[in-house]
Amino acid sequence: MKKIIKKIESAYGFVISVKFAVFTIVSLGIISAVGTVYESLYDMEMAQELVYHSPYMYVVLGFLCFTLVGVIIDRYPWKLHHLGFILAHVGIILLLLGSYVTRQIGVDGSMSFGIGEKQRRVLLSGKEVNIYASFGEGRLKRISRNKANFLQNPPSRQNPYVIESGNYKFEVLEYAHFADRETQIKKSELVKDGPALRFQIEGSRAQFTQWIRATQSKPFEQMQLGPAEIVLSPFQGVGQGFEYKGGNVIVIRPDFKEKDRVLYEIYGKSKNGLIKKGHAQIGDVIPTGWMDFNFRILNFYPHSFFEVSYIPRKYPGKFSQPAILFRHQGQEYWLGLNASRTFFEKDRGLALAFEQSSIMLNFDILLKDFRIGRYQGTMRAASYESDVVVDGKVVNISMNEPMKHDGFTFYQASFQQDEMGKPTTSILSVNKDPGRWLKYLGSLLIVLGSTILFFFKKVFVKQRKSHEKSA
């Protein structure tokens, strides 16, 4: 028993020793340095999840708190000159405790809306993989909500992240924190899918190669290429939706008598009407009658669909975003953040959504107006502010004047504008910090304790000098 007590005393003595304190401080410095590197190479989210909020950081901070408590106890019985020392150490513990409370139950998110829109949904930094189903009602309802911390626990083909709800099963096989979106037009066998055409316009002055795709929900799809307009209609009959109003136009329609053939009509600006019409197949070259331009049909699908895939990358790119690869009924699909994939099973619709975590406020916020102040002679924003309506009251939120309501603080964070510089969307930062009072109190105690320590040090120095003179 005495040996056990001696070992405990020895361990306790090491924990409150200067050597252990130095080890803890150096460890915090190393972890913080690694976090800074991660943030510069990748992004803030990866640095937060893998470094700043990693188990290593929490273990080191736990050691720090244990050491602080230990050295306070070790000074017992306390005397007046211990006051500053104790206050400073208690302040550090309260500061860490307040940060932990905020991390666990606080809110740090954002919300965006256009002028005249109401909003109560706050987007958070976390991610979810959710299942929605219609049950024959037309509107999809969420039936399964699943938090997805794929940075710390990445899925794999050997160990997929399985999501099940009733008879529905999805398996997330891969997570890419940075991925580039890639779309391909592919041939479909479904009659509900519209046609797609890959064409080339070539001449001495210009050359264009492009895809155009139409849907059954619109009478036609049009694409402007310089002085020419390309129109693709899913309907065979002339005059269904498209009306010639001038210019150089090529109209392409599927020929349902022969799947590999299309019907075309060419209109010219010089004649202000139809130049010619006919049918063509893949590979055919059609003279347009517009100078020396020819229209070549490179590929045509009577029915087509977009296949979206993502190319994972190690580092962030200009347009990269998080994406998952999942499997459902033996088929694999890519899905980007804040997107969904819909499946139809018997008499109901089913969707898997990869989306940001969110919470719903207990009140609506209406954006009544949004204003931008610009630097003189430029389009650069010098200030921006929102007028919002909450519980029937108009409140102004500007860059330096947040709004506080129902325990939340709303800051004017950013905005979006169109090509003409007209604001279209206001973006607010939403914060709820239940540990704030602990952090404030801890900071106050640190300052107060440091001040008292400095005061007692000066008093001690004066007393020592006075004693040396008297001696």
Total strand segments:
24
User: Helix count, per DSSP?
Assistant: 6
Our measurement of the CA-to-CA distance between the termini, rounded to an integer number of angstroms, reads: 51 Å
Please tell me what the overall shape is: elongated
**Structural class designation:** alpha+beta
Beta-strand share of residues: 35-45%
Structural domain count: 3
Report the radius of gyration as a whole number of Å.
33 Å
- Overall residue-averaged pLDDT value: 88
Largest sheet: 6 strands, antiparallel
**Approximate helicity band:** 25-40%
Low-confidence stretches: none
H/E order of the elements? HHHHHEEEEEEEEEEEEEEEEEEEEEEEEH
Which structural traits does this protein have?
six-stranded antiparallel β-sheet; 471 residues; 24 strands; five-stranded antiparallel β-sheet; alpha+beta
Q: Your description of this structure?
A:
The chain has 471 residues and is of the alpha+beta class. It folds into three domains: 2-106 and 435-470, no CATH class; 110-120 and 360-432, Tick-borne Encephalitis virus Glycoprotein, domain 1; 194-302, no CATH class. Helices cover 27% and strands 44% of the residues. The protein contains six helices and 24 strands. It has helices at residues 2-15, 18-41, 44-52, 55-74, 83-105, 436-470, and strands at residues 107-113, 118-133, 141-144, 161-165, 168-187, 196-202, 207-213, 221-225, 228-232, 248-254, 261-268, 273-281, 285-287, 294-301, 304-312, 321-328, 331-336, 339-345, 348-374, 381-390, 393-398, 403-405, 408-417, 423-432. The strands form five sheets. Strands 2, 3, 18, 19, 20 and 21 form a six-stranded antiparallel β-sheet that branches. The longest helix has 35 residues, at 436-470. It is elongated, with a radius of gyration of 33 Å. The two termini are 51 Å apart. The model has no long low-confidence stretch (mean pLDDT 88).
